[in-house]
Amino acid sequence: MKIIITGGGSGGHFYPLMAVADKVREVNDDKHIIQPKIYYMADVPYDENVLFRQEIEFIKTYSGKLRRGAGIKGFFSSSVRGLAKVLRKDRPDVVILTGWQIFPLLQALFCAVMLRIPRIVRAESNGMKPRGWRVRLVHRLLLPLYNGYLVIGRANQQFYSGYGVPRQKLFSCPYFVDNERFLDQVEKSIRKRDELRSRWSIPAGSICFLYVGKLTEKKRILDQLSALKSAMASDSNIHLLVVGTGELLEDARKEVKKNHLPVSFVGFLNQTEITDAYGVADCLILSSDYDETWGLVVNEAMVCGLPAIVSDRVGCGPDLVEEGITGSLYPFGDIQTLAARMLYMAENQERLLQMGKNAQRRVLQHYNVKKAVKGTLAAVEDVTGQAIS
């Protein structure tokens, strides 16, 4: 059986299906039952030794500029040429698509429809975000073109169910990161925790909260600084470590300077360095709006043993954050509630440590590549009518 996986845009979003393909190939290497193959549509020269670490064939079929700008104009700013010809040549049994966020993915969908190749989609859209009637209409026209749907979490399932997708066509494919790699790396980071805290000017005995991501309006760094200011009035033994750069960096620095806040800015850390931040921190905060369709940094933090405080508009919240068990949710934009959550964590350190252990156990047991492979292969069997043994 030949499976084609198509994707484009952010390599981070594409990683889970790459890992699934790699695992499938590994499991079926002797029997050669399944042959996964990847079409990755991109206009940037990703380092394949880093992004495509698995031994998966990489086929670059992209031509044009990849989504320059937002809206309709940005969506149609890219295209793929000759994709139907490639699909005819490969004659796959099924095509798995990573959503519809760029035009090349729709081209791949329409080519598969034209060639009568079964289609499976693994998108990140969730049912939490309000949408206008035009967007809802597009979804209603688009979703019936797929034969199977890989569900990354509860809010994602809510999205599909809201458009009438039958439950038997939904297959669990939980969102995950490279759990083993993060576990291995964070152990090394924890061993140098004191050294890293000193380097980043984090007081040895403080409770360190962590921000990871671009400093953009979507992720609401200024909300975290306001909450920190409020929390400082009750507990001065807290600190915020900010990892990332972006358009709001200077505004954030000014806010810190103006209010004398205990914040360390360390800039961008790549995937080989990010566990240093998880190793020195005590709790992650993700304060994003609805555009955070999942929030993989929560997976990363939890597998490294940290609980998370997450806004109720973040897609992973219903799956990963159980109140008081693995972290805490708070109403988006509610500065005082966020401050209260931070204070609770700082004042209940034993509970904080236990929540971190619970969070780690949850992602290791339920959000991993094995479960994603199981769901993916179940979907493949269903849409092709072929048993995989």
In short:
This protein is 45% helix and 17% strand.
| Number of E-type strands | 15
Q: What fraction, in percent, of the residue positions are helical?
A: 40-55%
Amino-to-carboxy terminus distance? 11 Å
Order of neighbouring strands in the sheet with most strands: 3-2-1-6-7-8-9
**Count of individual helical segments:** 17
Protein structure class: alpha/beta
Low-confidence stretches: 43-68
Task: State the name of the first-level CATH class of the largest domain.
Answer: Alpha Beta
Arithmetic mean pLDDT: 85
Describe this structure in words.
It is a single chain. By secondary structure, the protein is α/β, with parallel strands linked by helices. It has two domains: 2-176 and 368-384, Rossmann fold (3-Layer(aba) Sandwich); 179-366, 3-Layer(aba) Sandwich (Rossmann fold). 45% of the residues lie in helices and 17% in strands. It is built from 17 helices and 15 strands. A seven-stranded parallel β-sheet has the order 3-2-1-6-7-8-9, with helices on both faces. Strands 12-11-10-13-14-15 form a six-stranded parallel β-sheet, sandwiched between helices. Strands 4-5 form a two-stranded antiparallel sheet. Strand 6 (94-97), helix 5 (103-114) and strand 7 form a beta-alpha-beta unit. The longest helix has 18 residues, at 349-366. The chain is elongated, with a radius of gyration of 22 Å. The chain starts with a strand and ends in a 5-residue tail after the last helix. The model is unreliable at 43-68 (pLDDT under 50).
